[in-house]
Amino acid sequence: MMTRAMWTHLVKDLRIELRSLDAFVSMLFFSLLVVVLFSIAFDPHGEFSRDIAGGVLSVATMFASVSALNQAWAREIRHNVIDAQRMAPSPGAELFLAKVIANFLFVTVVQVILAPFFLIFYNLHIAGQAWLLAIVLPLGTWALVGNGIFFAALSIRTRNRELLLSLILFPIFIPALLAMVRATTSILTGDGDPSLWIKLLLGYDIIFTTVSLLLFDVVFHAE
Amino acid sequence: MKKAAIGLYVLITVGLMIWGFYQAIYVAPNDAMQGELSRIFYYHVPTAMLCFLFFAISLVGSIGYLTYRRGNPLRAQAADALALAGAEIGVIYCTVVLITGPIWGRRAWGIWWTWDWRLTTTLVLWLIYVSYLLLRRFAAGPQVQTLAAVLGIFGALDVPIVYMSNRWFRTQHPAPVFGGDSDSGFKDPLMLHAFGWNILAWFAWGILVLCFRYYVERRQQKIAANEAQEALDA
Question: Could you give the ipTM of this predicted complex?
Answer without folding.
Answer: 0.85
